Amino acid sequence: MKRKKIFLSAIVATGSLVAMPAIAAGDGTLNFSGSVIDAACTVAPESQNMTVDFGVNNVKSIDSIAYEGQGLKKTVKIHLTDCPNIGSIRIDFSGPTVVSTGVTFLDVNHDAGSAQHVFIALGPLNSQGGASSWPINAPGPTVTIQPGDNIWQFTAQLYADAYQRPTAGTISGVAQYTLVYP
């Protein structure tokens, strides 16, 4: 009988150990985010991280053509694929800015060795720059979109400050673009 009690006591003790809750070693939080939209174009890989090369330019030529509102132009193409039938999208540009002659332009880096008193205008292909350039850090142009693939073209135009002569150096600047759906 004594053995039976000891055996039952051992079983009860073992059972209570198994039923004990686990000891927490730490805790944490998982945050999830994202969005689901009904209308979306895909930005083609060649349009995701582009470099627009203005080449090598003479300070004197940049100063004279920029002052006349005819800065050096480069055509930029953004290729969109798999666009649904949504009619249009807005393309917003963001980046550092500078104001010259009452117009806001995309500013360039001012690191040591960088060209000074130059900036970039983004605008339509037939743009003369300046006042016809698109805003930076504000709602941008609305673009008509066809179902399927679309190539949207615009110009990046190098300008010099109308009040200060540009200096020699490298030109680098960054603008982000965002597709905004209606």
From TrEMBL:
Q: Which Gene3D superfamilies match?
A: Fimbrial-type adhesion domain
Q: What keyword terms does UniProt attach to this protein? A: Signal
Q: Which domain of life is it from?
A: Bacteria
Where does the signal sequence lie? 1-24
Ranges for domain Fimbrial-type adhesion: 31-181
Cross-referenced InterPro entries, in alphabetical order?
Answer: Adhesion_dom_fimbrial (IPR000259), Adhesion_dom_fimbrial_sf (IPR036937), Adhesion_dom_sf (IPR008966), Bact_Fimbrial_Adh_Pro (IPR050263)
Name of a matching Pfam family: Fimbrial
Q: What is this protein called?
A: Type 1 fimbrial protein
This protein's species is: Lelliottia nimipressuralis
- State the organism's lineage: Bacteria, Pseudomonadati, Pseudomonadota, Gammaproteobacteria, Enterobacterales
